[in-house]
Each structure stands twice: as C-alpha cells, then as structure tokens.
Amino acid sequence: MSKSDDDALREKIGALMATGLTTQTEPFPETDREFGHLLAELRELPSDDLQGKLVLSGFVDKPYGPDQMRCQECMYYLVHRKWCDLPELAVPVEPDWWCRLWRI
Ligand code: SF4
C-alpha cells in the first residue's frame, strides 16, 4: 500500500471510532495463552473485515487505562510508518490509539 492509501485507511479507522464504534476492550489478555487465543480469533475473520478486526481487538482512539497505554509504546508499532505490524492486524494507526493486543 502507498503512503496515501495508508493515510486514507488510518483516517477511515479514526472516523469509525470517532462515530462511536463500540469495541471489545476487555478482557485484556494477561497470559500468552489468552493472547494466542485472541490472535487465533482474529485469524478466523475474513481478511477484509476491517470493522470486525477493530471490534475484536478492542481498538480505541485514545490512550487506555490508568497507565495510559497507547500504540506509541507498543512493540508492534512502527514509528515512521505509523503502522501496527502485528500480522493479525496490519493496519495504519495513530500513536495515541490503543488496542488490547498491546505489548511491550
Ligand atoms: S497491537 Fe494494538 S496497541 Fe500495539 S500497535 Fe497494534 S493497534 Fe497499537
């Protein structure tokens, strides 16, 4: 995807959240097993089901929880591309967003 495609998709995702898309932010996967289970569920979605991915992964368009976790500090975040590099998601993101696949 080109940079402008990434930007357009990032804006689309941002608009979905800004217009009130409710996502599953809980439970946060505390163990590797729970994390793996959530990844497996994501893999079962059709690859073009963007909204399904956002809902299942618990996307929010702001830092989350008492620790204010966000993509910026997540191990999957690619700073220069503003991209989530977790293969099961693989979407453009903003540094201040978050999802429950967050890891450091
Ligand atoms: S896994 Fe979630 S928190 Fe981490 S970069 Fe991707 S969307 Fe952001």
Describe the structure in brief.
With 104 residues, the protein is mainly alpha-helical. The protein has helices at 3-18, 32-44, 50-57, and strands at residues 77-78, 83-84, 91-92. It has one domain.
Key terms for this structure?
single chain, 104 residues, mainly alpha, three-stranded antiparallel beta sheet, 3 helices, 3 strands, 36% helix, globular, binds iron/sulfur cluster
Describe this structure in words.
By secondary structure, the chain is mainly α. It contains 3 helices and 3 strands. It has helices spanning 3-18, 32-44, 50-57, and strands at residues 77-78, 83-84, 91-92. Bound molecules: iron/sulfur cluster.
Which structural class fits the helix and strand makeup?
mainly alpha
Fraction of residues in helices?
25-40%
Overall pLDDT? 97
> Terminal Cα separation, in Å?
26 Å
Compute the number of strand runs.
3
DSSP helix count? Answer: 3
- SSE topology string: HHHEEE
Secondary-structure blueprint of this entry?
Elements (H helix, E strand, L loop, with lengths): L2 H16 L13 H13 L5 H8 L19 E2 L4 E2 L6 E2 L12
Antiparallel strand pairs: 1-2, 2-3
The structure holds iron/sulfur cluster.
Iron/sulfur cluster binds next to loops.
